[in-house]
Fold this sequence. Notes:
This protein is α/β, with parallel strands linked by helices. The chain has one domain (2-271): Rossmann fold. It contains twelve helices and seven strands. The protein has helices spanning 2-19, 56-61, 64-71, 84-88, 92-104, 119-130, 148-156, 176-185, 191-194, 208-214, 232-250, 259-271, and strands at residues 33-36, 44-49, 75-80, 111-117, 137-141, 197-202, 223-226. The protein has a seven-stranded mixed β-sheet with strand order 1-3-2-4-5-6-7, with helices on both faces. Strand 6, helix 10 (208-214) and strand 7 form a beta-alpha-beta unit. Helix 3 (64-71) runs parallel beside helix 11 (232-250) and helix 5 crosses helix 6. The longest helix is centred in the C-terminal third of the chain and has 19 residues, at 232-250. Residues 1-23 and 254-276 have low confidence and may be disordered.
Amino acid sequence: MPGTNRLQALLLLVLILLNGCSATGNVRMPIPVLLVHAPQPAHRVVVMLPGRGDDLVGLQRRGAAGIIQHAWPDADVILTGLTMPYYTGGVAVRRLHDEVIAPLRGKGYRQIWLAGISLGGLGSLLYDQAYPGQIDGMLLLSPYLGERAIQREIRTAGGLAAWQPGPAQPIGPATFQRELWRYLKNWPREPSRTRTVWVAYGASERFRAAIELACPGLPADHVLMLPGHHDWTLWKPALSRLLDIAAPAAGQARLHTTDDTRGRARNAAAMASGKI
Length: 276
C-alpha cells in the first residue's frame, strides 16, 4: 500500500501542476479531479465537492476519501476542485454535470452520490435541482444556503411551508437563492428524493439557523446536529456519522428515471439558462 500512496501523491502533484488546483481555481481549465479507487470492487461512486476555503488538495489532505471508504469500502471516491470561481462564473453546475457526473453514467456504477461541504453542499443542491434524477443520494455537511435576507422573508411568512416564492424564474446570480429555497420547499412532495438526503451541521456554527429552516422537509432521522463549529473538527466526524446512518438506505438506493423525473429534468433545463 505505501507504493499506492506514493502513486496517488504523484498523481495529485501532476493535477496541481496541470490544473492550477488551488483555493482560487482556474475556470478556463477542466475541474480538477482525483479518483481514489475503492479497496473492494466498486459498486458506487461518491463525488466530493469542497467548501469555500478548500480545494482538491485540501480534501485529500484531510483524508476525505479514507473516511468515505472506511464506511463504504465498495465506493470509488472522486475528489474535486470545484472552487468558488466556478460558482461566481455561473458555470459550476453545468461543468460538474458535463465534466464529472455525465461521464460516470457509462462506468457501470449502481449509484452516484454527491458529498458537499458548505459551498459544496450548496453546489450539490443546485446540481440536483438542475439535473433531477441524475444522482442517487446526497451527504451535506454544513451546507451554505444563501444570504440572510431571503431567510428572514421565509421566517416572516411563518416558515418554509407557508412561504410563497412567487413565479419561477430562470436560475442566475440574482435568482438562484429564491429558486433554491423553492426547490427546498418542494421536498415534502418529493419522498423519493428526501429518502436519500442526509444533513449534518454544528450546534455552534454560523449556518445553523438557515439549515434548521430548511430541514423540516427531511425525515427527522436524516438530520444530525453535532457539537462544533464550521470547520473540519466538525466535518470529519460528521461525515463518518452520515455515512454510517445512510448505509442501510444506500444499500437499497437506485437511480430512478420515472416520467415525472424526466419531466422535471426538462423543466429545469428550460429554466437554467444561467446556471450557477
